[in-house]
Write a structure and sequence with these properties.
Number of strands: 4
Distance between the termini: 23 Å
Helix content: 40-55%
Number of helices: 5
Order of helices and strands: HEHHEHHEE
Largest sheet: 4 strands, mixed
Radius of gyration: 13 Å
């Protein structure tokens, strides 16, 4: 499912003239860990209850994150892409031509399952 999100994001990027993002395993590990954390602790936010931001999580892994999208709205990859495309801030992250890397985390367990996270970088 995560790889399919990268493929679909790249299709949307191509439609506006952006180059593809690479499917980055280090970014994906950080994204997946955040999806799991949100599910297991039953919150939904870019920032953890302790105040840890996407930039903190990425920086702790030695990564330079430039944007994060989260969702818990669709059980399918296509559905979550369409949800993000319908939200101006999420759309801007996905269609930012400066982004060159993308890691996707999806976690299929929890009260708002699945939890989706896209983490973008350069």
């Amino acid at each position: 499912m995560a790889s399919e999100v990268v493929v679909l994001a790249n299709q949307k990027r191509a439609e506006v003239g952006c180059g593809p993002v690479s499917d980055d395993s280090a970014f994906a590990a950080v994204a997946h860990a955040h999806a799991v954390d949100m599910s297991e602790r039953n919150y939904f936010d870019h920032t953890t209850p302790e105040g840890v931001t996407p930039w903190d999580r990425a920086g702790a892994a030695g990564l330079d994150a430039r944007g994060e999208n989260i969702a818990a709205v669709s059980p399918t990859s296509a559905g979550v892409i369409e949800a993000w495309m319908g939200s101006p801030g999420h759309r801007d992250n996905m269609l930012n031509c400066e982004h060159t890397k993308l890691g996707v985390g999806v976690y299929l367990t929890g009260p708002h399952s699945p939890y989706w996270v896209q983490l973008f970088g350069q």
